[in-house]
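Run log // design_07
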């Protein structure tokens, strides 16, 4: 099976989620992406005659198919490769580590106290957004039933999972 078939099969098996992850990397590097696109379009635009339409689109007035048929897409392919590599080498491992930590956190806290999933999710988010500490407000409102010892133990569980 050629590499492109493997990639197509992978994307189909992941429901396109890999494509969305690569798109997120492209969005994160949007200025560089724009520069890569302009490496070709800047030279090409003077060759294209066009006019705006009433729909806010453009109508191309001359034949342009030959401009796109066999152009050198090396900068575009290199940029896409870098985005795919970052997705595979950085983003997916980070997401996997996050999910493992999240699942472990939920399991550890659930062994300690009985708490609905919705509240466990909220607890994790509060800790995540407050450097691993429950704010006084959160302790009093959402997590009032927790003892000081339980709150301290939960913060320690969270901290241990952030630095395995």
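design_07 sequence
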């Amino acid at each position: 099976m050629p590499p492109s078939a493997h990639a197509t099969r992978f994307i189909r098996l992941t429901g396109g989620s890999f494509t969305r992850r690569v798109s997120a990397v492209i969005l994160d590097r949007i200025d560089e992406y724009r520069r890569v696109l302009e490496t070709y379009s800047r030279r090409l635009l003077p060759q294209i005659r066009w006019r705006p339409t009433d729909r806010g689109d453009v109508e191309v007035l001359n034949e342009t198919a030959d401009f796109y048929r066999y152009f050198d897409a090396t900068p575009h392919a290199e940029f896409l490769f870098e985005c795919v590599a970052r997705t595979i080498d950085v983003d997916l491992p980070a997401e996997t580590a996050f999910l493992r930590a999240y699942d472990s956190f939920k399991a550890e806290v659930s062994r300690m106290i009985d708490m609905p999933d919705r509240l466990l999710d909220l607890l994790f988010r509060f800790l995540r957004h407050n450097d691993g500490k429950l704010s006084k407000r959160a302790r009093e409102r959402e997590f009032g039933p927790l003892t000081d010892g339980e709150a301290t133990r939960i913060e320690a569980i969270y901290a241990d999972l952030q630095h395995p």
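The chain is about 70% helix and 5% strand.
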